[in-house]
Structures are given as C-alpha cells and as structure tokens.
Specification:
The protein is an alpha+beta fold. It has two domains: about 40 residues; about 220 residues, Sandwich (Protocatechuate 3,4-Dioxygenase, subunit A). It contains six helices and 14 strands. The strands form four sheets. Strands 1, 4, 10, 13 and 14 form a five-stranded mixed sheet that branches. The chain has a five-stranded mixed sheet with strand order 3-2-7-8-9, with no helix packed on it. Strand 11 and strand 12 form a beta hairpin. Helix 1 packs antiparallel against helix 2. It is globular, with a radius of gyration of 23 Å. The protein starts with 5 loop residues before the first helix and ends in a 5-residue tail after the last strand.
Length: about 300
C-alpha cells in the first residue's frame, strides 16, 4: 500500500512489523512508531526542526566515550531513567503480593552516568575516600529483608563524587576514588568512612547541557552518595542517600530524589568516633537501614 495521508502512513509503517519474530520487540516498536508519528503531527514538526533533532542525537552519541555516557545523561535529565526505575521496582514488588512484609523495599533511583564496574572490595570500617577532598563522614546501618530479617554478607557497591562535586571519572588520568564494595557482618551491619557529598552540576559542555539551557533549567543535583545494594535471593536496588538540607533537593536535574532516601548528616566535634577511630577534626555521621525484596519463587 502506498499511503496517501498521514494516518495511512502510520498504518503502513506498523504493518511492516508483521514479520517480527519477537513479540515484545514488535510491541515496543509498534508503540514507539505510533507515539513518534503522533508527536510529529501534534507539533506540526518542520523539516529543519526534524534535522536539528537528528543532529542533536548525533552529537549526543559523539559525546560518549569510555568514561562519559551522554545518552544516560539525556535519559536522566528527561526523567526517562527515573520512570523506568519506578516501573521496574513496582513490577518486582507486584510479583509476590501474597508475601507478608514488615516494610517495603528501599526505594530505587537512577544509576547515573558515573558508575564504574570493578570497585575494590574493602573490609568493614574502611575509609573508601582516602585522600579525597571533603569532610570525613562515618556511614553505618543494617541491611534487612522486607520481613525484618538481617542479611549476612549483603553487598554494598558504593561510589560518590568528592566534597566539591567531582567524580574520579571526570578527572583526567585519575584512578578509582571514593568507590568500594563492602559486605555486611553476621548481623547485617555495615559501616565505613567516606566524605559528605556536595551538590554539583551534571556536565553542561555537551548537547544535553545546551538542551537544558534551552529549556531554562538548572543542571544541578543535590548532594548524594550512590550504592547498589544486593544479597543472594533478593532483588537488588540501585539507590542514593541524599544529604538533608542540600540545595536542589526539590529540583534535582535528573528527578532522582525520593523522600525516603533523604538522610540527616549529624556533625560531631573532634574525638572518638563510633567505631573507635580518633578524629582530630570535626566529622559527620549518617545512618541508614536498607530493606531488600525477596525474589519471587
């Protein structure tokens, strides 16, 4: 069929999916085609505007390298990453509605573009940010399942920027810093030292930065530390701990703030810390308990 109008064109493109062998692929592509065509009609898109969009996506791809993922940044700043995260966690929790839980699982949020696979495993109590600029902070808590049982040997894969908001991946020639993998003890407890994270802007020197500027938006994220929390037989969660009272908690550039993840950081004078370490300057502490959803049978 040679389409003679816009509606026939959309139908003709959809009919080309009849040969798809993967039903889920056909479903996703069919919805994408219908929504894309509807968007073009809705805004009456002009040829030069469409070409600008193509050039923008081309520039996003060209900005990516082994340490910078501009497409993740684009997804994050449009709220797409957070939408996928929310739907995925809701889907996991809905698989076993019959199970009785004492509490819900820790809320997930975006991974962001600065995850670096292969962080070193360090012992409980380690300073994972040795030599990193920032105010020292003692982190502690426990990892439970949603029935309240502590999880022995659960893993925290942790990373953050420094006290000025810079990640190691953004510093030319730098190795891993403020990153570690730490496992809980027999009672599900964890503790380690790092720094109190600062708010920072997402990279604005590329096409996503130009997009944010055109939208009249600021590029900042509130102070936060990242972690992927996992345990055998449980649904892993990628999440943050956000610094209470940090600027931009109400307008995170990537829409990642969830109220349950905002944590009070308590200031302490020099002296003996909770783990027995003697601190010669002021430091902070942050306490948070994580809860993991058991995997459905």
């Amino acid at each position: 069929m040679n389409p003679s109008n816009e509606n026939e064109l959309t139908q003709a493109v959809l009919e080309r999916l009849s040969g798809a062998t993967d039903p889920r692929f056909a479903q996703v592509m069919g919805s994408l085609i219908k929504h894309l065509h509807a968007f073009i009609r809705d805004v009456d898109l002009k040829p030069d505007e469409w070409m600008n969009g193509i050039q923008f996506l081309t520039a996003v791809g060209q900005a990516c390298d082994d340490k910078r993922q501009e497409f993740i940044l684009l997804s994050d700043t449009l709220g797409a990453s957070m939408m996928v995260v929310m739907l995925d966690q809701a889907r996991a929790m809905a698989k076993d509605r019959a199970r009785l839980s004492a509490t819900e699982a820790t809320h997930a949020t975006v991974q962001g573009p600065y995850y670096w696979e292969g962080a070193p495993e360090q012992p409980l109590g380690a300073n994972i940010a040795e030599g990193v600029v920032g105010e020292p902070t003692f982190y502690s808590g426990r990892i439970f399942d949603t029935a309240g049982q502590p999880l022995k040997g659960a893993l925290l894969d942790i990373w953050s920027g420094d006290g000025e908001g810079n990640y190691d991946m953004q510093i030319a020639g730098a190795g891993m810093a403020a990153r570690a993998r730490i496992r809980t003890d027999d009672e599900g407890r964890y503790w380690f030292w790092s720094i109190r994270p600062s708010y920072y802007p997402v990279p604005v020197d590329g096409p996503v930065g130009r997009m944010l500027d055109g939208m009249g938006r600021h590029p900042n994220r509130p102070g936060h530390i990242h972690m992927v929390v996992s345990a055998t037989g449980h649904v892993p969660v990628t999440t943050h701990l956000f610094v209470a009272n940090s600027p931009y908690l109400d307008s995170d550039a990537v829409f990642g703030v969830r109220p349950s993840l905002i944590v009070e950081y308590e200031s302490h004078p020099a002296g003996q810390a909770p783990d027995g370490r003697v601190m010669d300057s002021t430091y902070w502490s942050a306490h948070y308990d994580f809860h993991l959803e058991p995997q459905a049978a």
